[in-house]
Amino acid sequence: MTRVDLTAISKSFGSVKALDGIDLTVEDGENVAILGPSGSGKSTLLRVIAGLEEPDAGDVAFDGVSQSGIPPHKRDAAIVFQHFALYPHLSSLENITLGLRHGLGLPKKEAEQRAHEIAGRMQVEHLLGRKPKEMSGGQRQRIALARALARRSGIVLLDEPLSGLDAQLHAVLRLEIASLLRSVGATGINVTHDQLDAMAMADRIAVIHEGRIEQLGTPDELYAVPGTLFVASFIGSPPMNLLAVDADSGTCAFGRIGAPGPVTLGVRAEHLALGSVAAHPSAWSISGTVGLVEPTGKDRVVQLVTDEGLPIAFRCEITDTPVPGSRVTVVCDPASVHAYSPVTGLRLGDAVSEGIRVSEAAGVR
Ligand SMILES: Nc1ncnc2c1ncn2[C@@H]1O[C@H](COP(=O)(O)OP(=O)(O)OP(=O)(O)O)[C@@H](O)[C@H]1O
Prior knowledge:
Layout: E1 4-13, E2 16-26, E3 31-35, H1 42-50, E4 57-62, E5 65-66, E6 77-80, H2 92-103, H3 108-121, H4 137-150, E7 155-159, H5 167-184, E8 187-192, H6 195-201, E9 204-209, E10 212-217, H7 219-224, H8 229-234, E11 241-244, E12 251-252, E13 255-258, E14 264-267, E15 273-274, E16 284-295, E17 300-305, E18 311-316, E19 327-332, E20 338-340, E21 347-350, E22 357-361
Helix pairs in contact: 2-3, 2-4, 3-4, 4-5
GO molecular function: ABC-type transporter activity; ATP binding; ATP hydrolysis activity
Pfam families: ABC_tran, TOBE_2
GO cellular component, one term: ATP-binding cassette (ABC) transporter complex, substrate-binding subunit-containing
């Protein structure tokens, strides 16, 4: 097991700042996902940790030892790439043992023993004689993972290890990978743009945006209390409803807002419920017309379109699903409404603790 410390890592490509002052500690045996949209700097960060890319500034340390100047093959980190990168003319056994023999200098017999040991653990021994083209995508990815784990590195770096696999295999493999990393005790750093992968695999998630870490926390923390407007709009399906308060009129979909300063309000779909203010006097409400209705199997995600044309998602029971085109009101507890600064993008607190009020409800007819 190995602790990874990243300190003030920056990296530019010409005028593009791919990484902009990244600080992150991944503890021994911990599994952290680097989650962000395309182009946010995820792969560059992984490449810097692996030593495939030299940072312009900052330091990468494994167990407190700076890796500066240490080439990739001498670092205690194995990397699994997005596109398998298995040698097509070699069997799985040869793919796994090649790096052990030539990279780590193990004798053939010991390399083969290790390959069989990890393959047994991953239940892929029957694939050891096959070449990549004789295996499915999921099987190839398992072999690529076996190859990385056979090195017994303290750190395993995964670059979108599940992309290109179908949804079912995806769901199985991400749990398999997470439990394998735990069972071998490796420290895992996993790059992904898929929030469900990140949530399922990681102890903590670092959300990265434009080369900076926006928030670091457990999956539950990021979902319950998104620290920035970006995280609020990125984590969760559907994403949090964000309601900008108009600076001139002082209004948003909830009505006229009394607030100490400029604010953008956020509320999750499951915190909005069909109802009336008459029945919930302290609740805030939004009225509008029912648009798209999305079945999830368990419930419905319904889109309400306000009179200003703003779509607001809420959840309801299947038996309560309103008819598209009908007029409805949804209510919420103001304590479940998040308040963000539109200037800094940072979360201020919840609406109640921030002293935010609705002085005049909107959309009531
Ligand atoms: N070798 C390179 N030369 C020039 N620009 C690069 C290079 N590598 C990355 N970039 C740029 O740096 C930024 C971050 O790229 P990076 O590949 O790290 O993002 P990413 O989050 O992994 O994206 P994706 O999910 O699409 O792979 C992007 O704007 C990208 O175009």
